[in-house]
Amino acid sequence: MKRFSKEENSWVLYDWANSAYSIIITTAVFPLFYKAAAENAGVSAANSTAYLGYTIAIATFILAMLGPILGIIADYQGFKKKFFTFFFALGVTATAILAFIPSDQWLALLICYTVTAVGATGANVFYDAFLVDVTTEERMNNISSRGFGLGYIGSTIPFILSIAIIILAQNELLPLSITAASKIAFLITALWWGLFTIPLFKNVQQRFYIEREARPVVNSFKRLGKTFKEIRKYRVVFLFLIGYFFYIDGVGTIISMSTAYGTDLGIGATDLLIILFVTQVVAAPFAILYGKLAEKFTGKKMLYVGILIYIIVCIYAYFLETTLDFWILAMLVATSQGGIQALSRAYFAKLVPKNNANEFFGFYNIFGKFASIMGPLLVGATAQITGNSSMGVFSLIVLFIVGIIVLMFVPEPKEVSVPESVNLN
User: Fold this and answer.
1) pTM of the predicted model as reported, rounded to 2 decimal places
2) What is residue 7's DSSP assignment?
3) Domain annotation for the chain: domains and CATH numbers
4) In this structure, are residues 110 and 74 in contact, taking their beta carbons and an 8 Å threshold?
5) % of the chain surpassing 70 pLDDT
6) 3-class state of residue 210 by DSSP
């Protein structure tokens, strides 16, 4: 494989940048911080986990509603980076604001977290769509997987710094409270995210686009209905999105609620942080490995492998009892979480017309985000009804089973003829 271009490296580096948000805010420090705040306010463990699930559902619902509309507008020349910039700025700013919310205001924390999630997820919609602008179809599996791999590696640096500050504060080796140390972690996240996004701003441009026209917003709404019809004509794209809807739901739910789940099982905060750190380290080479294996065995077969591993994760989670069990579960997740996301992104990018990439990635987003509403709600409701968080995780197994069945009917991208552009006007 030839050397990576400046555009490819700059695009990949955004995974390095925003993965700090994924591990510190979505997965590790913030959930622990929120769970402690809710517990101090008298909220039960099961209810606080459920409220976190509902909050994630609200944030993803907002993006699901906005995704197709923003995607259509962003297909016009010069719009993609503007939308990316807006959501990036929203996410970074709200993440920094988390550090200034009083720790006893658990509801305010959830509201601000919702804004950070909207910003981070919204920026990712346009970041994913930039994949068609920075590389060729033949290199997409490798570039997408490399992004996730470097993201895991990059996230460990601010994560180590953050947990070091928290643990030192916890052991009174720093003149800080655990609350203050956690808030410093939020600021570190915002700084890391912002700093390493600069290369993307400088070097990545929208190469594929639709020419601008009068009243772009009005015309975009007119095109929205036609896009719904058009995407149904793309039977392969529609089938893939249905399968993706189910399996990515389970993936995202396990990632976003793993820390709250571990807390409910009685695993200590320090143990959880160490487990999550090792998960990031293990996930990095596996994400890159998925890209390499996809070149040899095809992306579809490697997606099968990833989904089957997640089915095992759901079954194993039901019998979880000890910290060792959680370690084993985390390592199983680490082998596939990056690979399944990277190959899904590359698979979809190969199926859609490049000039309309944002438009189709808008639907990629709406399917993924509506799925992300269902998963947390399923876990939250099951946990509240049964009083058992393990049952909530186990309930996700149906999503993976349906996802893999639908994916069986989706052909390989090389078997599909995809035009560079489609006229939806």
Assistant:
1) 0.73
2) H
3) 6-203+224-409 (1.20.1250.20)
4) no
5) 86
6) strand
